[in-house]
Design goal:
five-stranded parallel sheet; 514 residues; FAD/NAD(P)-binding domain; Methane Monooxygenase Hydroxylase, Chain G, domain 1
């Protein structure tokens, strides 16, 4: 592997084969670029699982200002308004660019884009492809385009460590079937997805455990808003992993949530089933923790039309022995999307020279405390393109002699998952978060397979403990109201370790490390 990678020295390297990574690679053409994926293109990551669609103000009754107002409302005071305005204004062109790249969006009989409605949107602005298969169709089209693009070289390997010299990116250490190797590069993009696989109940694939956050944090990058994890309120409640997502678009078509007795428990809540996701998720969680089952009822609003409108969801239900046409669909909240990530500027640059980030792994300020439905695919496309433009305008720097480094162990979140699930979930409190810090600190400080996932979980717990309020997706039972002062959180790995050592009692750390 090493000999082959030496020939790629100096090229920009993108880690991640989802929508953000593919978009960045395609818009860098014709500049040669290396795309590092841990599995064949189109077969891994959260992007192919995305059902909802792309939010874009393309309707005649819509515009970017209305889209911005809805986004800021869902973000609960924590969005970066300038970043949100810039990203959302690029929505219509992003949809057009995807069509030029081969994406087949759903259209009405007269040829117009078919627009859906999702929670907290004031207009029908969700552009779909193949019904509830939007992510799958985007990844298909972008993969075909990438494989046909002569400037893109795909390397199947797992990123293990960012090599930094003099405060700047110098290379990427990867592991493949033939062992470890180094890609020499001074321009590196992380597009590695989210953190859902740090939770026992998630709609994310097993690979989404925060690897990109760990890589960036270990390289010295600043991370932002790590405490904000969005739990999708309607994941299919089965033993399958990951859980099948039951898209918000189903509720947009009129489906309601009921308990086992048929009671519609959200009826009196403003927005009801289409209230912001954090509101709905907490309402569902309260029912479950009270010992009641929760169901999605689409029998009246969709009935026999369900399989045609939502074929992937219908297939997931049938696989679990449920017919959504005639049956109530059992659901539960599941970790779905991370609003936090690597702190980046308008061009996707991190605080480490030569390191960019795009997609869910990045924190642009668009989502604030609670992501507005279907804004994430839009962000991936718009910001992937912005990163490509930024890299294209950054001259290639001469490579440096790399100091030999040890290949880290293959990361495994198994020991971290029970801790994060229990203490950094839908609701949190100081005692539980402190417990999480004490349990995660020895793992994060070690060198084993749990180290990288534990660093991410530790930083999330430290951030959640520091935010003594409830806002958006961050719900503290001991601080149930929003604070008057609103500000985004920032944290480095060194800062997290320092805070964790102050929080954790030495005797507890020793006990948990044994």
């Amino acid at each position: 592997m090493t000999a082959g990678l030496d020939a790629l020295s100096g090229r920009p390297v993108i880690v991640g084969g989802g929508i953000a990574g593919l978009t960045a690679a395609l818009f860098l053409a014709p500049e040669p670029v290396v795309l590092v994926t841990r599995a064949p293109l189109g077969t891994d990551g959260s992007s192919p699982l995305a059902q909802g669609g792309i939010a874009a103000s393309v309707g005649q009754d819509d515009d970017a200002d209305l889209h911005l107002a809805d986004t800021l409302g869902a973000g609960d005071g924590l969005c970066d308004a300038d970043a949100a305005r810039r990203i959302l204004a690029a929505g219509p062109e992003a949809v057009a660019a995807l069509e030029r790249l081969g994406v087949a969006f759903d259209r009405t009989g007269d040829g117009a884009l078919a627009l859906g409605l999702e929670a907290a949107h004031s207009r029908r602005r969700i552009v779909h492809a193949d019904g509830d298969g939007t992510g799958r169709e985007l990844v298909r089209a972008l993969t075909v385009a990438a494989l046909a693009c002569p400037s893109i070289t795909v390397v199947e390997a797992e990123a293990r460590r960012i090599l930094v010299q003099d405060g700047a990116v110098a290379g990427l250490m990867v592991a493949g079937p033939a062992g470890g190797a180094v890609l020499r590069t001074r321009r590196l993009v992380l597009a590695t997805g989210g953190v859902g696989a740090l939770y026992e109940h998630t709609t994310n694939p097993a690979s989404s455990f925060g690897l990109g956050l760990a890589l960036a944090a270990e390289a010295g990058a600043e991370l932002a808003d790590l405490e904000f994890v969005q739990f999708h309120p309607t994941a299919l409640a089965t033993p399958a992993r990951p859980l099948t997502l039951v898209s918000e678009a189903v509720r947009g078509e009129g489906a309601i949530l009921v308990d086992g007795a048929g009671r519609r428990f959200l009826e009196a809540v403003p927005g009801a089933e289409l209230a912001p996701r954090d509101v709905v998720a907490r309402a569902v969680w309260r029912e479950i923790t009270a010992g009641r089952e929760v169901f999605l009822d689409a029998r009246t609003c969709l009935g026999a039309r369900f399989p045609a409108r939502f074929p992937a969801i219908a297939a997931g239900c049938r696989a679990a022995g449920i017919d959504p046409v005639t049956d109530l669909v059992p659901i539960r909240p599941a970790a779905h999307y991370h609003m936090g990530g690597i702190a980046v500027d308008a061009e996707g640059r991190s605080t480490v020279e030569g390191l960019w980030a795009a997609g869910e792994v990045a924190s642009t300020g668009l989502h604030g405390a609670n992501r507005l439905a279907s804004n994430s695919l839009l962000e991936a496309v718009v910001c992937g393109r912005a990163v490509a433009a930024s890299i294209a305008g950054t001259p290639e720097r001469r490579s440096v002699r790399l100091v030999p480094a040890t290949l880290p162990a293959a990361p495994d979140p198994a020991r971290v998952r029970p801790v994060v699930s229990r203490f950094v979930g839908v609701t949190r409190d100081a005692a539980g978060l402190s417990d999480a810090v004490s349990r995660l600190l020895p793992l994060a400080a070690g060198e084993g397979p749990a180290a990288a996932p534990a660093k991410v979980g530790l930083m999330m717990a430290v951030s959640a403990l520091a935010r003594e309020e409830s806002r958006g997706a961050h719900a503290r039972t001991d601080f149930p109201t929003p604070a008057r002062a609103v500000q985004r959180s920032r944290l480095t790995l060194d800062g997290a370790f320092a805070a964790a050592r102050r929080i954790a009692a030495p005797e507890r750390v020793l006990a948990f490390s044994n």
